[in-house]
Amino acid sequence: MEIIYQPWPWYVAGPLITLTMFFLLIMGKRFGISSNLRTLCTICGADKVSDFFKIDVKANRWGLVFVLGTVIGGFISGQFLTPNDYVDLNPATIESLKGLGIENPGDGFVPDKMFAWESVFSLKNFFFLALGGFFIGFGTRYADGCTSGHAITGLSQLKWQSLVAVIGFFIGGLLMTHVFLPYII
Predict the structure, then answer these.
(1) What are the sequence ranges of the domains in the chain?
(2) 0.70 surpassed by pTM
(3) Which of 70, 60, 83, 93 shows the shortest CA–CA distance to 177?
(4) How far, CA to CA in Å, does 124 sit from each of 118, 132, 158, 179, 185?
(5) What backbone torsions phi and psi does residue 34 show, to the nearest 5 degrees?
(6) Do residues 46 and 53 touch, judged by C-beta distance below 8 A?
(7) Alpha-helical segments (H) within the chain
(8) What is the rounded distance in angstroms from the CA atom of residue 100 to the CA atom of residue 35?
(9) pLDDT at 170
(10) CA–CA separation, 113 vs 117, rounded Å?
(11) Local confidence pLDDT in tens for the 185 residues of the chain
């Protein structure tokens, strides 16, 4: 008997996220990954270099446990809850990806042409990874949060700057997909 794995339906996952946000709001905590990087940098001694990193590490320990749980949960999901690497894509998306030169779209979660080790260490892809990493780091700091922090916490708290940031994330994603991706591949 074959076990078929399905993602959690929205009516289960959505209320669980809402419940989590409710408890974080009551406890006065913020949800997001990027703020935990600041805590890690402080632990590594960055507070001696910049006042930005002078924070109370003990008050932010819970966030590091959250990140650890995210990594462990991702590993468990990838290793034990995913039946195969095939991704069920729309036929139009498959044709579009083939037009960009991606062979066998849907055979894995990421195209090997872009994410195989030999591709990562090419000069072109290394440049794009370094530039993308810089933009993500700069953008996260400039926007005062990452996508998860703004889209989940900020919007649930009705923060105007989070709405602007999320709109910017979507515009950036659309530009990347429709304008820049063909040049990268």
Answers:
(1) 1-83, 116-185
(2) no
(3) 93
(4) 12, 12, 41, 17, 10
(5) -65, -35
(6) yes
(7) 10-27, 34-43, 61-80, 91-99, 112-115, 117-120, 123-142, 147-148, 155-156, 160-175, 181-184
(8) 36
(9) 92
(10) 9
(11) 445 555 667 788 788 888 888 888 888 877 778 778 888 889 999 999 999 888 888 888 888 888 898 889 888 877 777 666 677 788 888 888 888 778 777 777 677 766 777 777 788 888 888 888 888 888 887 888 888 888 888 888 888 999 999 999 899 989 988 888 777 77
Residues 6+ apart with CB under 8 A from 94: 105, 106
* Residue 117, both tokens: 């080790």
DSSP string, 21-75: HHHHHHHT----SHHHHHHHHHHTTGGGT-GGG---TGGGHHHHHHHHHHHHHHH
Q: Which long-range contacts (CB under 8 A, 24 or more apart) does 128-132 make?
A: 128/184
> Residue 32 is encoded by which pair of tokens?
């997001």
d(CA 20, CA 13): 11
